[in-house]
Specification:
The complex is a heterodimer of chains A (198) and B (280). Chain A is an all-alpha fold and 198 residues long. Chain A is 72% helix and 0% strand. Chain A has nine helices and no strands. Chain A has helices spanning 10-27, 34-41, 45-51, 56-79, 85-102, 104-112, 114-143, 151-167, 177-188. The longest helix of chain A has 30 residues, at 114-143. Chain A starts with 9 loop residues before the first helix and ends in a 10-residue tail after the last helix. The relative contact order of chain A is 0.10. Chain B is an all-alpha fold. Classes of the chains: A mainly alpha (198), B mainly alpha (280). The A-B interface holds A 101, 110-111, 114-116, 118-119, 121-122, 125-126, 129, 146, 148-149, 157, 160-161, 163-165, 167-171, 173, 176, 178-179, 182, 185-187, 190-191, 195, 197-198 and B 1-2, 5, 146-148, 150-151, 154-156, 158-159, 162-163, 166, 183-184, 187-188, 191-192, 194-196, 198-199, 213, 216-217, 220-221, 223-225, 227-228, 231, 237-239, 242-243, 245-246, 267, 276, 278.
Chain lengths: 198, 280
């Protein structure tokens, strides 16, 4: 059934994505061709085009999007059973930062081909920001906010700041629990959570 | 693409003279060239940099040649290369540096005029918001050449921008905060700007919105910071030196004219710059 939406044929599509990812990991983004991906996946060029009509560029974009969502799916697994907003943010910062640094392919591409990777990642990050804010919203609502503070705006702030800290911790060492606790307490939550001693 | 991208960061070693006077509109004083002897090279450099802003704003980096800039600046190509021996690379780096200095000077003035910490933070964020939304070169690059500009402001470079912002802001916030807290607040506010810049920069130019953010979000955090410092008998942060650890430039930077080194690092120098990277 040519023309079937890709989602209806997850296995072939996924095999192509896996194969493309392997090629990108090996050769980088610029040097990965559609033929490479097809060969690696053991399918024909026509099959790849059926799933990715936009060809190589669409394929590479799809791999980035897929990896991005994969990353945040893992993050969700890590934090979804946390009890409080503080715990969600703490776990998220620690896990995501470590996962990012340990992601060898990502780190190498950031070194070698940032100009190809970042524009796409920035677009995805904006989309993910909305997802993260949506995920945080019930925690914020449960936590409660000061009068005049909108819970959506609060969740939006927390999502943006958390993603920013993950991508670029700045002077924070997110492998140090004391520092994570400090940035969560002050920069993220001071305006929502009353100080412990106050 | 990669060349152009390195270009913008390679400000190290290229120092724009006459900083602070480059105009973003590319205006060139035609009269000075006539009559009274040779034009000082300072002024020529500034003309070239102003012309660069105009050309890049119109056509992007890829679409701008040394000839375009020379023509616009009213000088010969040879003169341009004499003023900037590195050619286009050097011109672009010097332009980025000059624009950055101009931005810092404006920001410093606005912050130093503020009467309260809240006013200072609002002024800083609004200033940054205006540049982000209004700078012609930035707007052009974000729209048409994201591959050039994004690597300069994300991940590793974002780290350096944040560190530089913190170092830069600290002395300007010293009226209200101890040095560690000042650096921490500087980094925080820079991060807020950064976090909203990409898709919500317009909010950063809305004074009421920015003030509300400062009042409701930042000030409670500053209070919490200070109370924690009192509790633990130390300023700012419980764990070692916020910025001291990763800043590669000498700490004297705090008292000297604040020129962030951030956007000028060539990517190649990164290893020396990232002590925390697991190279082992």
């Amino acid at each position: 059934m040519p023309g079937t939406p890709a989602s209806a044929r997850p296995s072939t599509r996924q095999r192509i994505l896996d194969a493309t990812y392997a090629c990108v990991a090996r050769w980088g983004i610029a040097k990965t061709t559609l033929e490479d991906a097809a060969r690696e996946a053991g399918v024909s060029r026509a099959t790849v085009y059926r799933h990715f009509p936009g060809g190589r560029d669409e394929l590479v974009d799809a791999v980035i999007v897929w990896q991005f969502l994969e990353f945040f799916a893992r993050l969700y697994e890590e934090v979804h059973d946390a009890d409080s907003l503080e715990e969600v943010l703490t776990r998220a910062l620690v896990f995501a930062r470590r996962a990012m640094l340990e992601h060898e392919v990502l780190q190498r591409l950031l070194e070698t081909e940032p100009e190809l990777l970042l524009p796409k990642m920035t677009i995805e990050a904006e989309r993910v920001e909305g997802m993260v804010a949506g995920f945080l919203l019930p925690y914020v609502a449960r936590q409660g906010v000061a009068p005049g503070v909108d819970v959506h705006e609060a969740a939006d702030y927390l999502a943006r700041m958390t993603l920013s800290l993950i991508a670029a911790p700045g002077s924070w060492d997110l492998s140090d629990p004391a520092q994570v606790a400090d940035v969560v307490r002050v920069e993220l939550l001071a305006w929502l959570v009353p100080p412990a001693d106050g | 693409m990669t060349t152009a991208q390195l270009v913008l960061v390679q400000g190290e070693g290229v120092h724009a003279s006459g900083c602070g006077d480059t105009t973003a509109d590319g205006a060139v004083d035609e009269r000075t060239e006539s009559g009274r002897g040779p034009v000082p090279s300072d002024l020529r450099r500034r003309r070239v940099l102003a012309a660069t802003v105009t050309c890049v704003a119109e056509r992007g980096i890829a679409g701008t040649t040394a000839d375009d800039i020379a023509r616009r600046a009213g000088c010969s190509r040879a003169t341009l290369y004499r003023l900037f021996p590195g050619g286009m690379d050097a011109v672009l780096a010097a332009m980025a540096e000059a624009e950055l200095r101009r931005f810092q000077a404006e920001l410093a003035e606005a912050i130093d005029r503020a009467g309260t910490l809240a006013d200072a933070l609002v002024a800083g964020m609004l200033g940054a918001g205006r540049v982000l939304t209004g700078h012609p070169v930035l707007a052009r690059l974000l729209a048409d050449e994201p591959g050039v500009i994004l690597p300069l402001v994300t991940f590793e470079h974002e780290e350096r921008l944040l560190a530089a912002a913190a170092r830069w802001a600290a002395p300007h916030l010293a009226r209200w905060l101890d040095p560690a807290a000042a650096a921490r607040v500087g980094e925080w506010v820079a991060r807020i700007v950064d976090a909203y810049a990409m898709d919500a920069a317009a909010q950063l130019t809305d004074e009421a919105w920015v003030r509300r953010l400062v009042d409701t979000v930042v000030l409670p955090g500053v209070a919490a910071m200070t109370s924690a410092a009192d509790d633990r008998g130390g300023p700012g942060r419980p764990t070692p030196g916020p910025l001291a650890g990763r800043a590669s430039s000498p700490p004297a930077a705090l008292s000297t004219p604040p020129i962030p080194d951030a956007p000028h690092r060539p990517t190649d120098s990164a290893p020396t710059d990232r002590p925390h990277r697991p190279t082992d």
